[in-house]
# Entry
Amino acid sequence: MALIITDECINCDVCEPECPNGAISMGPAIYQIDPAKCTECVGHYDEPQCQQVCPVECIPIDPDHTETREQLQRKYLMLQQQPATG
# Structure
């Protein structure tokens, strides 16, 4: 299950640097999460780091991108094999 940032986002900039997969970026108005890169921190941490630091608690599970923990683990492994782009 990827996470999503809701309209309650205040653009405080604390979530983006916490994402170990680089899934969070600034969108047209608020931050956004790329569901192809979001593993809910599976493979890195026990809890999603963006949720832990968000002061307004605006990062719920995205109902449009539901995945099991095993699927998130496979996505994490796939992301680790991809070369970094920059």
User: Anything to note?
Assistant: The mean pLDDT is 94. The first helix runs from residue 49 to 53. The first strand starts at residue 24 and ends at 26.
